[in-house]
Structures are given as structure tokens and as C-alpha cells.
Design goal:
about 0% strand, about 90 residues, mainly alpha, 4 helices, about 75% helix
């Protein structure tokens, strides 16, 4: 991921000025990495190590979303709508 892309994601999802590790930011960064890796795997079907990494990232994002849903449902709804994770 490019530094400019990461910086844009951080500024879009930060809760305050120095926020780099909140669940919202982590979910947004993981979503970007998942989308990038999904595109890679469409052209490289036999790259099983990257597929495993993708599954790990998806499960990590799922755990963060579950945490956010339990602790602050309004933030959960906002991030899922903003990242278009739910229909």
C-alpha cells in the first residue's frame, strides 16, 4: 500500500487528530489491503500463501467488526456503510 493511500485512509477514518489505531482505522486499512489482494489473486490463482494471508486479514477484520458492534453500534453502522461492507 502506498503511503499516500494509507494517509488518506487515516484522515478519512480517524476519530481525533492523532488516531492511528482505533478499530475504525484498522478496519479501513484491512479493507484496502483485502481489496488489493483480491485483485492479485484473480490473476494468480495458484498463489496459496497470499490466499492464506487474505483469509487471515478477513478474519481479523471480522473480529474488529464484531468488537465494534458490541461496544459502539453507531460507529459499526457508520463504518460498514462508509466502506460498503454490508448490503
Amino acid at each position: 500500500m502506498e503511503a499516500q493511500t494509507k494517509k488518506k485512509i487515516l484522515t478519512d477514518h480517524q476519530l481525533h487528530a492523532k488516531d492511528t489505531g482505533s478499530a475504525d482505522v484498522q478496519i479501513a486499512l484491512l479493507t484496502e489491503r483485502i481489496n488489493h489482494l483480491t485483485g492479485h489473486l484473480q490473476g494468480n490463482n495458484k498463489d496459496h500463501s497470499s490466499r492464506r494471508g487474505l483469509l487471515i486479514m478477513v478474519s481479523q477484520r471480522r473480529r474488529l467488526l464484531n468488537y465494534l458492534q458490541k461496544t459502539d453500534n453507531t460507529r459499526y453502522l457508520g463504518i460498514t456503510k462508509k466502506l460498503k461492507l454490508r448490503k
